[in-house]
TrEMBL record:
Belongs to the cation transport ATPase (P-type) (TC 3.A.3) family. Type IB subfamily. This is Cation-translocating P-type ATPase. It comes from Halogeometricum luteum. Residues 4-70 form the HMA domain. The chain crosses the membrane at residues 92-113, 119-138, 159-179, 185-208, 342-365, 377-399, 686-705. It comes from the Archaea. PANTHER family: ATP7, ISOFORM B, P-TYPE CU(+) TRANSPORTER. Signal peptide: none annotated. The lineage of its organism: Archaea, Methanobacteriati, Methanobacteriota, Stenosarchaea group, Halobacteria.
Amino acid sequence: MGTTHGQFNVGGMSCSFCAESIKKAYSRTDGVEDVDVSLAHEEVLVEYDDDLLSEVEVKDTLRDLGYTIRDPDKAKRYEQQQAELADGKRRLLIAGGASIVVAALMGWMILVMGRFESASLAMDLVTLGLALGTMFGPGRYIKQKAFQSLRRRIFNQHVLLEAGAFAGLLGGLLGLFVFPSFPTVHFFAVSVFITTYHILSEYTSLIVRTRASQAVQSLLDLQPDTARRVGEDGSVEEVPLDDLDVGDRVRVKPGESIPVDGTVVEGESTVDESVATGESIPEEKAAGDEVIGGSVNETGTLLIEVTATGEDAFLNQVAREIEEARAMKPGIIQLADRVLKYFVPGVLTIAALSFLFWVVAPLAWGGGPNVQRGAFAALAILVLGYPCALGMATPLALIRGGGKAANRGILMRSGDAFQIFPDVDHIVLDKTGTITVGEPAISEVVAFDTDEVDVLTTGASAEAFSEHPLADAILEFADEQDVEYADPDDFDSVTGKGVRATVASDDVLVGKPGWLSDEGIDLSKAGDDIERLQGRGLTVSGVVRDGDLIGLIGIGDEIKADAAETIRRMRDAGITPVIITGDNERTANAVAEEVGIDRVMADVLPDEKREEIGRLQEAGHRVAMVGDGINDAPALTQADIGIAIGAGTDIAIESADIVLMGNRLGGVMDAYEIGTESYRKTRQNLVTAFAFNGVGVAAATTGLVHPVFAMLAMVLSVSAVLANSFAGQLLSGEGVNTEFAL
């Protein structure tokens, strides 16, 4: 017995106030030693003493607060999320319908009845019914959260919302039964509107988080559901992956995904392991070599002995890394929530003191208690105090910046990206598919005693029947250069080494220098060129005709056209660029030198990428990570800002905060500049909104502010925030693009 770690996927969190409420609740629970809450992925890690607390008691704290604990099974968890979405939509439709009816009634009062403050008894009762129906129907769950928070002395957005909602309800009831001068309909309307607003904001947040949470399931779907198990007698049966054990043997045909981690027992093939390394050039595999589940077998049939199953398998390890990175990701408290942290208890305190003042103070100058004025002051303060504009300040800046980003092909999926980007001082970039194009391409052709066209013609003719990706690169380059080549008369592929062919009665070899040397080919005249090409990180294929080496073909991953310029922009902004890659150090250094990066981390596995990001964060740096592959997903999740190349894998995109549509690397710095500008807009919006709320609350303490004027002030504050967010954008003709949000 001793310290235990509990990790829970939690439903119902919508803003950083939720995360703070959970932390406060656990901090006041005996036996809890530490807690980490990830709002972005709705996960909670609790470190507790199991001598003092059971797992059930730890979970009960979350349930008491009004949050749900989802099933650890990923498929069932997805079903629960879909059910939560359906419930959220149902609540929103009911509350939204009530809000529309109330707004219509208020408009009818003014336009048709010509009244502002009073209404008929029937209208009062209708709005009362709508207020009660909204608050105790779709809004009932908010009351549970508010009650449990108050019970633990936690003042959060739920408490303030319910204070405003009940204040509106109480004001309407006072107007209905006690003070005829009270604007009954308007007070009941407040209860309906603020409840609906909160339900809308939570539903929108739930949509975003549900879509993002499908990332791990997408990753695990890469594995096939079944495998061909080969018995000791040679018999073959197709079995579910769960039935495989370490030591079993499975057969994988060309073009199929390798179902499990294992070691090749028999056969030779090329295997696309970009699922693990992100590298575009396939690995040659033969007996004794290890293979990774989820990678793709390309050319030959392999017999593989299983070495890892279940949670020990590579894809499951990556999935676990992503989940842990989500839960442990450094928490970000939004700027608006830092303001609201003090604003909520402040508004409640001022409302209570104002009521007491107008009840007690008149006694000092010989008057009687002015209960009506005190109630009016307290209710108006709570109406004005509900931080509608404050709550909208950040989302509106996000919409403005997100729309601007969308026009440049940048998808901003997280508000945190706007908050953090101005503080980023390190940008870590994957190599393949990020700095480079991500596909094998011809970088250089070297000719000996002939010309480059002859080398390319001979090489392309020999490779015409090959299915190897490097052969595809040679043929594609020949087509681009309008080089004509013929099919070989005879062809033989030597797996992992090269090809033999007869081209126009000439014997041709194309392949690795080591294999050519073993075949007795003299490579002495090409030694310097081979070393130079390999020093640039290129894969070298020699072209031999009738026993004579006539040329070399250097194949590599082409660097993106805007890579060097993007790195320069990073340096100009005071940001340190870093390469992190699973490729070898020689290739990584060659790319780094060409684009102007000084720091290189090579031969790094997926879990090590995440660890390297964590070390930078522990050293006090704000880190953005740019990648495109499955092997980048844990690091993208761990980083303060994860940036995925849109042409990459779904798992990388779903793990990121920002997605660059297409292959252009320059979008990284475009996003940085837009994020920095949007953060400035957020602060301006908060100042504007807080000025309206602050001045309004102060004025309401006099007891002279009509609730309709309080509502108008809320409308004005929202309008001011809207104007600040979008006026310049609309005047410039950019328009407002909101597609990024979901």
